[in-house]
Amino acid sequence: MIEYVVMIIAVLGCVLALIQRDLLKAAILTGITGACIAYLFQFLLAPDVALTQAIVGAAIVPVFLALAISKTHRMDDND
Q: Where does the record place the MrpA C-terminal/MbhD domain (predicted)?
C-alpha cells in the first residue's frame, strides 16, 4: 500500500517540477522525485539500483541543477 503512495508522490513531484516558475524549487522537486524512485527500487528488492538512484537522482542531479541555476542571471520580461 505504501508503494502506491510513494508512486503518487513521485508523479506529483514530476508534474510540479515541470510547472514551477522558480527553477530552484524545480531542482528540489527533482530531488524528492529521485528519492521516491530510489525507495521504490528498494521496495522491489533491487538495492544496487536503489543506491545508485539515491546517489544520482536524489543528490547529484539536484545539486548540479542548483549550481547551474546559481551561475545564471535572471532575465525579466522587460529586458
A: 9-74
Work out whether the CA dihedral 43, 44, 45, 51 comes out positive or negative: negative
Enter the DSSP assignment of 61.
Answer: H
Give the predicted TM-score (pTM) of the model. Answer: 0.83
Burial 35-57 (b: 16+ CB within 10 A, else e): bbbbbbbeeeeeeeebeebbeeb
Q: What does the alpha-carbon distance between residue 28 and residue 30 come to, in Å, rounded to a whole number?
A: 5
Q: Are the C-beta atoms of residues 50 and 39 closer than 8 Å to each other? A: yes
78 falls in which pLDDT band (50, 70, 90)? Answer: low
